[in-house]
Amino acid sequence: VVRAMIEHNLPREGIQKVFYQGAMFRHERPQKGRYRQFHQIGAEVFGVDNAKIDAELIAMTHTLWQNLGLKKVTLEINTLGSAEARVNYRTLLVDYFTQHKNQLDEDSTRRLKTNPLRILDSKNEDLRGLIEAAPKLMDHLDEASAKHFESFKTYLDCLNITYKINTRLVRGLDYYNRTVFEWTTTDLGAQGTICAGGRYDGLVEQMGGKPCPAIGFALGVERLILLLQAQGLTIGTPPLSIYMVALGDKAQLKSLQIAEQLRQALPEIILYNDISLGSFKSQFKKADKAEADFAIILGEEELNNNEVAIKPLKNQGEQQQMPLEDAIQYFKKG
């Protein structure tokens, strides 16, 4: 996203709010909730450095969880301060963990050299006490970052969004600064993060663009589906699908009119209007292949009576004949 923003000079045009969705790929070993190929939805804001937009993005995800009916999701927040504050804090962490190097596991020993902040995010329960006793970045913030975090919390309070401050939350990428957050759940075992994000105010400049504050989040679609399943939730009901079956030139003409009337009256339906001029049998085969719920049939009898025939395709219901106006009401009632 940042590359695209720079390539098209969008940060120069003021505040930019963008979203994306699509397939992603990861190099790490796949496991439940962490697939080689997965799908992601994200939103990013460029050009705003105040904490109000941080809270606005979180409010967006909060509304999504409410609309989906999700329960037992927790918002965890932290601040990573400025780049300068993090450099000083990194030195404190290295000194602290070096003194206790004999207690570190293999992964944390490696991180001590590459990215000591990630030790704070270790899932090794044997290190919990050591990590809890480590220096807190919150105690070493620069003044501007401390004010930003206080404003951020105030906005969340104003929106009645409950949160938990997690001083171990550092995120996995080095370019984050100030606000970082995760939505977590206990219903998915080890892969408990369903949405995460934060500020990356220096990334645009690092990648060759003009200085531009930015913040964003991403959520994994497959993991969200797993959580919905774990909580016994479904995402609405699929739209009704109808297949128009017409035999003869007059019926084909009439089917065009009826299809348009149905689309106007029932904009949420999926409507297939067969234009192949094939036989009833071939058209019904296509209706089955399309997995349509109903067929609307137009033959000579229906034309003479100024009616349509409705045939259920997914159950053993009886075929009914009625005026189009009644058919519309029939489908509206579900």
From TrEMBL:
Q: What PROSITE patterns does the entry give?
A: AA_TRNA_LIGASE_II
Reactions performed catalytically: tRNA(His) + L-histidine + ATP = L-histidyl-tRNA(His) + AMP + diphosphate + H(+)
Gene3D superfamilies assigned: Anticodon-binding domain, Bira Bifunctional Protein, Domain 2
Q: Which domain of life is it from?
A: Bacteria
- One Pfam entry name: tRNA-synt_His
Q: What is its EC number?
A: 6.1.1.21
Supply one GO CC term from the record: cytoplasm
**Keywords, sorted A to Z:** Aminoacyl-tRNA synthetase, ATP-binding, Cytoplasm, Ligase, Nucleotide-binding, Protein biosynthesis
Q: What class of enzyme is it?
A: ligase
Q: Which positions does UniProt annotate for L-histidine binding?
A: 26, 40, 44, 171, 175-176
**SUPFAM superfamilies in alphabetical order:** Class II aaRS ABD-related, Class II aaRS and biotin synthetases
Q: Please give the name of this protein.
A: Histidine--tRNA ligase
Q: Which GO terms describe its molecular function?
A: ATP binding; histidine-tRNA ligase activity
In terms of InterPro entries, this protein maps to: aa-tRNA-synth_II, aa-tRNA-synth_II/BPL/LPL, Anticodon-bd, Anticodon-bd_dom_sf, His-tRNA-ligase, HisRS-like_core, HisRS/HisZ, HisRS_anticodon
Q: Which organism is it from?
A: Bathymodiolus thermophilus thioautotrophic gill symbiont
Q: Which family does it belong to?
A: Belongs to the class-II aminoacyl-tRNA synthetase family.
